[in-house]
Amino acid sequence: MKELVCIVCPKGCRLRVDEENGYLVSGNSCVRGAEYGKNEILNPTRVLTSTVKMEGGLYRRCPVKTNIAVPKGKLFDIMNALNAITLTSPVQVGQVVIENVCGTGADVIATKAL
User: For FRET with 95, which of 9, 47, 88, 105 sits at 20 to 30 Å CA-CA?
Assistant: First the structure.
């Protein structure tokens, strides 16, 4: 049995996921918590936020994030891809920095206009 804290809402329910019994989730106070608990065990995902190098502007780094959640196991690969690029000013909010990063189907987008 795995124990997790649900992060879907501010309540922070303490979930228990029974892997031997069809990933049955208990301790949740809503349906979203049950879905989160099962997905966190079977296929954990995260939205990655970071920064990339900038040149030609006032700032040295530009904040970025993935537009959708990506598999947790790919986070280090994505960070390596981000470390390998340098943006040139100007950059617009929502501008795609890397398309389909590491084959995840997610785009890395700029989150600030610089």
Answer: 9
Q: Could you give the CA distance from residue 85 to residue 95 in angstroms, rounded to a whole number? A: 14
Is 105 in the same domain as 68? yes
Query: The pTM is what?
Result: 0.80
32 or 106, which is more confident: 106
The strand pairing partners of 18, in sequence order, are 24
Strands (E), 2-60: 2-5, 14-18, 24-26, 45-46, 49-55
For the chain, report the end-to-end CA distance as a whole number of angstroms.
47
List of residues 6+ apart from 1 with CB closer than 8 A: 16, 17, 18, 19, 20
Same domain flag for 54 and 77: yes
Structural domain boundaries enclosing 64: 49-110
The set of residues, in sequence order, having a beta carbon less than 8 Å from that of 19 and lying 6+ positions away, is 1, 2, 41
